[in-house]
Design goal:
Elements: H1 17-25, E1 42-44, E2 70-73, E3 106-107, E4 115-118, E5 121-126, E6 132-137, H2 151-162, H3 169-173, E7 177-184, E8 187-192, H4 199-204, E9 238-244, E10 248-253, E11 273-277, H5 282-290, E12 296-299, H6 302-308, H7 312-315, E13 319-325, E14 333-337, H8 347-355, H9 359-365, E15 372-373, H10 391-397, H11 424-437, E16 441-443, E17 446-448, E18 456-462, H12 470-481, E19 486-492, H13 494-502, E20 508-512, H14 522-527, H15 546-556, H16 561-578, E21 581-583, E22 585-586, E23 589-595, E24 598-599, H17 610-617, E25 619-620
Parallel strand pairs: 2-11, 18-19, 18-20
Antiparallel strand pairs: 1-4, 3-4, 5-6, 6-8, 7-8, 9-10, 10-11, 12-23, 13-23, 14-20, 14-21, 15-22, 16-17, 24-25
Pfam families: SBP_bac_5
GO cellular component, one term: ATP-binding cassette (ABC) transporter complex
GO molecular function: peptide transmembrane transporter activity
Length: 627
C-alpha cells in the first residue's frame, strides 16, 4: 500500500513548507553553521563541507549528461489540478514544478547533511556572535526578465513572505529572522532574534523573486495574495512555456539561465522541456503510464508494484521497473487524530485506537511483506530515541515530570503486535480497558460516553486515495467495530480536502510528516503550540503541550550535536507516548518505473525523492529520440 502519503498543498505553503524549502536548500540539508567572520563558499555545522573550494560538480550528477528532449511526468503528489502559479500563498493550488523557477541564496547537496553551498550568493559571512549572516550576491545572477538579482529583491522576497499576504505559517517559520538589511546593491544581511545555528540556513534557503512580479504596465501592483497566473519572475533554470485547463503545464529551459556553469548546477537540468499532466485519480494515472503518455512514475503502493505495474509494456522492455535504495529519514506517517475534537483529548483513547490497527495482518495480506512498522517520529535516522533516556534527555524531561506520563522516562512504546504469541484479541481487550478508564462504555449497541454520545468519527481523505485505502480502512473499521466504535471513511475532491485541512475541519486524516534529515525549525511548525492555531499549519493534530514546547525550544537552540541529539530523542519520547498519530509503515526503497531510454548518474544521491531527482538529474540517451 502507500509508502509515503504526503499532506500536499501548494509548493511553499506550510505544512509542506519544510518540504518546499528542502527543494531550495537541496535534499539532506539541515542545520548550519561554523561561526566564523570569514566569508566562505560553503558552511557546515559539524566538521567540514564534503566538497572543497573549487569543486567542479556534485558526485551524484553526470557532468557530461546529454541535453535535450521533453520529459513528461504525471501528478507529483495527490493534487489533481491547479489554479495559480504563486506557490507562496495559502489559498488555491499552485501548478507543480514551480520550484524550477525560483532559487535561493544557498543550496545543499544530496549526499551530506548540515552543509550549504552558495547559489545566488558567492560568499556567506556568519557574524562571530552568531546573530547575523551576510550574503554577497553573485554579480552574474539575474532574473528571467534580464534584471540582475539585487539585495533589494532578496529583502522584498523575505518581507513579502513574512507579511500577511503570504501563507501565515511563513511568519512563524521565519520568526527568529528579525529583519533583512540591504548593505549595498549586492550584499544582504539577515539579523536574528537569538543565536540559533539553523537560522543562517533558513536565511540562505529563502526563495527569491523579483520585486517586479505583479507590477502592471501602468506601475500599479497586484497584491501578492491575489497573484494567480501572472508569470513569476525568478532566477531558476526553467520558464513557463504553456499551460492548459489547470491540468497541464510545460516548462522550457531558459537559454539564458545564468547559473548553468555553477558547481552546484553542473550536470543538472538536462531536459529541454518538462511537462506535467495531472490525472483525476491513481487508476487513470497508472493506465496513462502504461499507454506511454508520460515517462516515469514513482510507485507508492506495494500491491500495485506487484500486481498492477505489469503487462506487455513491461514484458517487452518498453517500461522498466527498478527499486532504488534510499536513506532518507522517513518521518511519521499515520492516521493523525485532531485533538481539537473532545473525543481524542484523552491519551487513553488515542492509545486504544493504536491498539486496534493490525499491521502484521495488513503487511501479510495487502502489502506483500514490503513494509516495516513505524515506531518513531524520526525513523531510519540517528534522531530516533532508543533504550532508556540519557542524562541529557532527562535534563530536558525532568522539569516536566509532573505533567508527563511516567512511561516517558522509560523506553519508547512498542507498537502493537499480532504475531504469536500476541494477538489482535489481546490488543482489543487492552484497548477496551483503556476506553473504559476514559469513560467510554459499550451499551445500547455502541461505545458511549457518560452523556450517551456514540464514539463515531470520520477519516477524511482526498479522492485520489479512493483507489488504495478502502481495503486498509475496511480492516481498521472492522477492528474498531469490535470495540463499539464507528469509523466512517470519506473521500472528497482535493480542493475541498485541502480547505478542510487548512481550517482543521476534520476528525482524523492520513498524514505524512515531511522528511527531515536534521530536525530544525520545521518541528516548531509541526508540533508547537503556537502553530496549532495557525490556519494551514503542519500541526494538524492540534498538539498543545508545554513540555513539547520547551523541548522544541531546546532543539532549535542546540549549539552542539550532543544537545541536538538529546533534544530530538526527548521530543521523540514525548510525542510517541502522546499517541497523537496511529503510526503506519515505511519502505527502505523507492519503486520507480520509467520508459526505456532514460538514464541516471552511476553514483546515487543519499537523500532524495524521485519526484525531484528525475527532472533535476536524469536524461534521455541519444537512442531515446525524445523531442
Amino acid at each position: 500500500m502507500m509508502e509515503r502519503i504526503s499532506r500536499v498543498r501548494s509548493p511553499g505553503v506550510p505544512g509542506s513548507l519544510a518540504a518546499t524549502l528542502l527543494v531550495f536548500f537541496g535534499a539532506g540539508v539541515g542545520l548550519l553553521a561554523t561561526q566564523s567572520a570569514n566569508a566562505s563558499y560553503a558552511i557546515a555545522q559539524y566538521g567540514e563541507p564534503k566538497y572543497p573550494p573549487g569543486f567542479k560538480h556534485f558526485d551524484y550528477v553526470n557532468p557530461d549528461a546529454p541535453k535535450g528532449g521533453t520529459l513528461v511526468l504525471a501528478n507529483p503528489n495527490r493534487q489533481t489540478s491547479f489554479d495559480k502559479f504563486n506557490p507562496f500563498t495559502l489559498r488555491g493550488n499552485a501548478a507543480p514544478g514551480m520550484d524550477f523557477l525560483f532559487e535561493s541564496l544557498a543550496t545543499g547537496s544530496s549526499d551530506e547533511v548540515a552543509t550549504e553551498y552558495g547559489l545566488l550568493a558567492d560568499d556567506i559571512r556568519i557574524a562571530p556572535d552568531g546573530l547575523s549572516t551576510t550574503f554577497h550576491i553573485n554579480p552574474l545572477a539575474h532574473f528571467s526578465n534580464g534584471d540582475p538579482v539585487t539585495a533589494g529583491d532578496v529583502k522584498f522576497s523575505f518581507d513579502t513572505l513574512k507579511s500577511p499576504q503570504a501563507a501565515p505559517a511563513y511568519a512563524s517559520y521565519f520568526a527568529d529572522i528579525t529583519r533583512a538589511v540591504v548593505v549595498d546593491a549586492q550584499t544582504i544581511r539577515f539579523e536574528f532574534r537569538q543565536r540559533n545555528r539553523e537560522l543562517p540556513l533558513l536565511a540562505g534557503g529563502i526563495p527569491v523573486f523579483s520585486h517586479k512580479w505583479g507590477v502592471k504596465p501602468d506601475g500599479t501592483r497586484i497584491p501578492f495574495d491575489q497573484l494567480t497566473f501572472e508569470p513569476p519572475i525568478g532566477s531558476g533554470p526553467y520558464l513557463i512555456d504553456s499551460y492548459s485547463n489547470g491540468r497541464t503545464i510545460t516548462y522550457r529551459r531558459n537559454p539564458n539561465y545564468w547559473g548553468a556553469a555553477l558547481p552546484v548546477r553542473v550536470g543538472m537540468n538536462n531536459f529541454d522541456r518538462i511537462t506535467y499532466k495531472l490525472y483525476s485519480d491513481d487508476t487513470a494515472r497508472r493506465e496513462a503510464f502504461k499507454a506511454g503518455e508520460y515517462d516515469a512514475m514513482t510507485e507508492m503502493v506495494a500491491r500495485n508494484w506487484v500486481r498492477r505495474d505489469v503487462g506487455k509494456p513491461f514484458d517487452n522492455g518498453e517500461l522498466i521497473k527498478r527499486e532504488f535504495p534510499q536513506h532518507n529519514g522517513n518521518g511519521m506517517q499515520g492516521f493523525v487524530l485532531n485533538l481539537r475534537r473532545p473525543m481524542f483529548q484523552d491519551v487513553r483513547v488515542r492509545k486504544a485506537l493504536d491498539l486496534a490497527l493490525d499491521f502484521q495482518w495488513l503487511d501479510r495480506q495487502l502489502f506483500y511483506n514490503q513494509y516495516t512498522r513505524i515506531d518513531s517520529y524520526f525513523v531510519n535516522t540517528q534522531w530516533q530515541a532508543t533504550g532508556m533516556p540519557s542524562a541529557g534527555e532527562l535534563a530536558l524531561l525532568n522539569p516536566w515530570r509532573q505533567q508527563l506520563d511516567p512511561a516517558v522516562f522509560g523506553p519508547l512504546p512498542k507498537q502493537p503486535d499480532t504475531d504469536p504469541p500476541n494477538s489482535l484479541r489481546a490488543n482489543l481487550l487492552q484497548a477496551r480497558a483503556l476506553l473504559a478508564e476514559a469513560g467510554w462504555v459499550y451499551r445500547d449497541g455502541a461505545l458511549r460516553n457518560a452523556k450517551g454520545e456514540k464514539f463515531e468519527f470520520e477519516m477524511l481523505d482526498d479522492s485520489s486515495g479512493a483507489a488504495v485505502w478502502p481495503p486498509v480502512m475496511a480492516t481498521y473499521q472492522r477492528n474498531l467495530a469490535k470495540l463499539g466504535i464507528t469509523l466512517n471513511y470519506r473521500t472528497t475532491d482535493f480542493a475541498v480536502y485541502q480547505k478542510r485541512l487548512d481550517a482543521f475541519e476534520f476528525d482524523a486524516t492520513i498524514i505524512k510528516v515531511p522528511d527531515s534529515q536534521v530536525p530544525g525549525t520545521d518541528v516548531l511548525e509541526q508540533f508547537g503550540s503556537k502553530s496549532a492555531d495557525i490556519s494551514g499549519s503542519g500541526n494538524l493534530g492540534g498538539i498543545r503541550s508545554p513540555a513539547v514546547d520547551a523541548i522544541l525550544h531546546a532543539l532549535v537552540g542546540a549549539q552542539t550535536l550532543e544537545q541536538l541529539t538529546d533534544a530530538t530523542h526527548a521530543l521523540d519520547r514525548v510525542l510517541m507516548h502522546g499517541y497523537y498519530v496511529v503510526p503506519q509503515w515505511y519502505s527502505s526503497v523507492w519503486r520507480v518505473a520509467f520508459k526505456r531510454g532514460m538514464a541516471w548518474p552511476k553514483t546515487l544521491p543519499l537523500y532524495y525523492d524521485p519526484g525531484d531527482w528525475i527532472p533535476s538529474s536524469w536524461w534521455f540517451t541519444p537512442q531515446a529520440g525524445k523531442s
